[in-house]
Amino acid sequence: MAVTIDILVALGVTAQLASCVGLLAMRTAIDRLHYGGAATGVGPALIAAAVCVREGFFTSNGLNAVVVAVLLALLGAALSTATARAIRLRERGTLKASEAEREARS
């Protein structure tokens, strides 16, 4: 069981480090948002899984870890969406799709 916990924590930390490197490497804010979104979803879920393996799912620590991971994922996605909409509005003046974007969807 200790090996499983160590692997989950290592994967969670690696996911967070990869997100940080991606944030530093990307040039545009929209590209950075993708790595920020991964940082709020993947790493915390793996760390919460490690806590649940060690403490048990139906304990206060296990449930707290799951609640925190779910809230990070949901609120991180909402914040990323709001930020992307604000960037698009600032850059283009509208949230509506351009003709080229509509054609690319079809």
Key attributes of the depicted protein:
106 residues, mainly alpha
Describe the fold and architecture.
- The protein is an all-alpha fold and 106 residues long.
- It has one domain: Helix Hairpins.
- The protein has helices at residues 2-25, 29-55, 60-92, 99-105.
- The protein is elongated.
- The mean pLDDT is 93.
Task: Provide a compact summary of the structure.
By secondary structure, the protein is mostly helical. The protein has helices at 2-25, 29-55, 60-92, 99-105.
Give average pLDDT, whole number.
93
Order of helices and strands: HHHH
Distance between the termini: 50 Å
Biggest sheet statistics = none
- Provide the β-strand percentage band: under 5%
Anisotropy-based shape = elongated
Structural category is mainly alpha
Summed up, the domain count is 1
Number of strands: 0
Q: What is the number of helices? A: 4
In CATH terms, what is the fold-level topology? Helix Hairpins
Question: Secondary-structure map with pairings?
Answer:
Layout: H1 2-25, H2 29-55, H3 60-92, H4 99-105
